[in-house]
Give the backbone structure.
Amino acid sequence: MDIRQMVVSDLDFALNLTALEGWTNTRRDFEELLYFNPEGSFISEVGGEDIGMVCTVNYGEFGFIGNLIVQNMYRGQNFGRKLMEIAMKHLLDTGTKSILLDGVPKAVSLYEQLGFRKIVKSLRLESVLTGKSSENVRQMIPEDLDMISVSDLSHFGSRRENFLEMRFSSFAEYCKILEIDDEIQGFIMGSRSGSSIRIGPWVMNSHTPRSEDLLLAFAETSSGNPLKIGVLESNNESLNLLWKHGFKETSHSWRMLYGEDTGATMSNHLYAIYTPALG
């Protein structure tokens, strides 16, 4: 097996792999990865045929691995393990102290063999909501990006303003601010995947009951389309709100860690993950 860096011409192959798994990845997701971390995603080949992939994001002291998929007919031959080893080496060689991932249950044993350990379930939930506007919620504007990037840094544990800016530029209609007494209390962003709207990231600076206003205002923009969200099982504030509004668990992964536990990505102010590949 040969492994090379993913390039733009590989995106159709990557999207086909995720579609076969039933994942909600979009072309824009992979474009973001390649734009901001062009050397961090990999394609595996056998006899000149593309058979698998894996993606990484370097956040500095920690990194994230996602989108590990090998075509069905090539599974059970250690190709997934070799892709993971390349991804881990890439991140560790750049100085990351820890690596995180959201692992689907069937891949957990592989990750554990490679030294990862389970931290918490990463839940996937879905609902259809009747939204409602609020005087406390407004559309995000470009001038908000610096402020929300500072907030995001304090809760996520690293800078990801490039991803936030691209999410805003691509899906501004799904980006909203909760503002009370001229202070930003939280923000929510989203993206479209087929007929569904994906929520994430969603960051709250405080656990105010007005968090509900932000969710309902987002739902109003979704025009009755199904809403999908990923949230860590440890975040009771977010889950209680989602259960209240009829969200049901559709699947789960495991948030797993290799190396030093810095607490990154685990804040309960993160009401939704960005994507399973970005944390």
